[in-house]
Amino acid sequence: MKYECPSCFLAWEDEKDPQEKVCHPLCSFCSMSHSQKELLNWQIDHLENISSHRFLHILRHLYRFVELELKLLKEKVYDANSQSSDKRES
Q1: How would you label 19-58 residue by residue, b for 16+ Cβ within 10 Å and e otherwise?
Q2: What is the pTM of this model?
């Protein structure tokens, strides 16, 4: 029986066949709470066990995560620069 985690898309096979039904249990990683970064790291580390039709989904999430992190970093740098220029003016 083939399984796929609906959270991280990790795919695996098991010899037990629960009444010929496709099951979507959470993997041991996803059954606990993790950050989006941890999930993306997990997915990248296990790409060989993830179905190829899920790659675009993972890449989209990775792109959006990186874009958000860059935006937050840009805001922090802007705030730090404005605070240091305010101190110089005082």
Answers
A1: eeeeeeeebebbeeeeeeeebbebbeebeeebeeebeeeb
A2: 0.69
CA distance 22 to 86: 61
Find tokens 């740098």 and name the residue.
77
Give 11-45 pLDDT, tens digit per residue. 877 776 656 555 667 787 888 888 889 999 989 89
Q: Which two tokens stand for residue 81?
A: 């620069």
Q: Alpha-carbon distance 68 to 76, whole Å?
A: 12
The CB-based long-range contact list for 39-44 (8 Å cut-off, 24+ gap) reads 39/7, 39/8, 40/65, 42/8, 42/10, 43/8, 43/9, 43/10
Helices (H), the chain: 36-45, 55-89
Average pLDDT (58-80) is 95
